[in-house]
Amino acid sequence: MKYLKLVSFLILALCAAGCKKADIASSKRTITDMEGTSVVIPKDVNRVACISQSATDFMIAFGLGDKIAGTYRSFTYNPWTLELYPAAKNFKAYSYSVAAEELLADGIDLVITQNTENAESFRNAGIPVVAVHQYSPSGKFDDEMFDTARIIAQIFPQAKKKADAWIKEVQETIRNIELKIGTADKDFLVYYVNGEKSKGLYYSDGGNSMISKIFDIANIQLATEKYAVLNVHKVSDEEMVSLNPYAMMIGGAYQNNLFDALKASPIWSNLDCYKNNRVYRIPVCMIGIENIGVETSLMLKYTASLFNNYEFDMAKEMKTCVKKYFNYELSDSDVRNMCNGLDKFGERMVK
To answer: Which of 284, 212, 296, 293 is nearest to 250 (CA)?
Structure first.
């Protein structure tokens, strides 16, 4: 009898242990990020450190803003963020160098980031890290432009329908542009200024990047295409004189400050693109529309219209986009200000 009781006890203990393991396993899921890393994440993610402007844009647009505890600090520089999504006032601003200890103290259960420099320290602290990028770590940036939305839909299955609809929207936009303007390369060399940070006119992107992909679709050439995107290129004055681009596009919250710097520079203001009024501001929305985000179709159409015979009503389509994704009614004045890199009151986004 004692033997039977012991056997029964052991069986029950093993069953309990097996059930516990099954419960733990069922509370986790595995996804693959843009670096090809398999990441085990909680089944229910509730507090995200979204250290990526693009991922933050998608999460808000897909109805997941309440899952965001903090975002990349550059995201907070744009006053349109609070206008379109007032709850963003509760987001904490994180830098790429945020410490694992701070994330633990904030109760973060997942990090989504464009910079994985500190990923190992986060993982060692028990915080899963998912990498998303504005470029492809493995090759030519192409279908990867949809990966951030796909990954968010994997983390939050309730967003899959909206993510799939956005992907279809952008794919149809690309097909429409290619149908109307063709796919032949043109000689237009266009320099892009990344104005998300205060790093001057020399801060640009290289090949294998989102901006390079956008330019390819518009049949223009990124002036810094030959440079590696992983080390965001900073051109010299001599290089700019040599490049002498046909046009220039300036984006980000600092775009008006950078335009003033261009006018004040005896070298940059002597470029043909400036003398011929071919320096263009990139409209801003929840983020600068040259970034991967729900505004991507706007950027594709805008760029195609600047350099090709492609008709595009920016005011109409920006209003439609913002209403669709952020449930906000833009006025004509709002659209003009967004297109000029200004806040709702016509002031610079950063002073």
So the answer is: 284
Burial 226-249 (b: 16+ CB within 10 A, else e): ebebeebbebeeeebeeeebbbbb
Check residue 228 and give its pLDDT.
65
DSSP label of 91? P
Tell me the one-letter amino acid at 55: A
What is the predicted pLDDT for the residue at 24? 43
The dihedrals phi and psi of 126, each to the nearest 5 degrees, come to 90, 15
DSSP character for 112? E
Q: Which SS3 state, helix, strand or coil, does residue 3 take?
A: helix
The SS3 of residue 194 is: coil
132 closest CA partner among 302, 329, 292: 292
Q: Which residues pair with 51 in a beta bridge?
A: 113
- Look at residue 238 and tell me whether its pLDDT is greater than 70: yes
Neighbours of 120 (CB within 10 A): 11
Contact between residue 278 and residue 246 where contact means Cβ atoms under 8 Å apart: yes
DSSP category for residue 90: G
Residues 6 or more apart from 50 whose CB is under 8 A from it? 56, 59, 68, 70, 71, 72, 112
pLDDT tens-digit series, residues 290-305: 999 999 999 999 999 9
Ranges of H-type helices in the chain: 2-26, 53-61, 80-84, 100-105, 119-124, 147-155, 160-181, 210-217, 237-243, 255-264, 272-275, 296-307, 314-326, 332-339
Burial letters 164-194, b for 16+ CB under 10 A, else e: eebbeebeebbeebeeebeeeeeebbbbbbb
Does the global pTM surpass 0.85? yes
- One-letter identity of residue 223: A
User: Tell me, what's the pLDDT at 239?
Assistant: 85
Residue 51: what are its φ and ψ, rounded to 5°? Answer: -90, 60
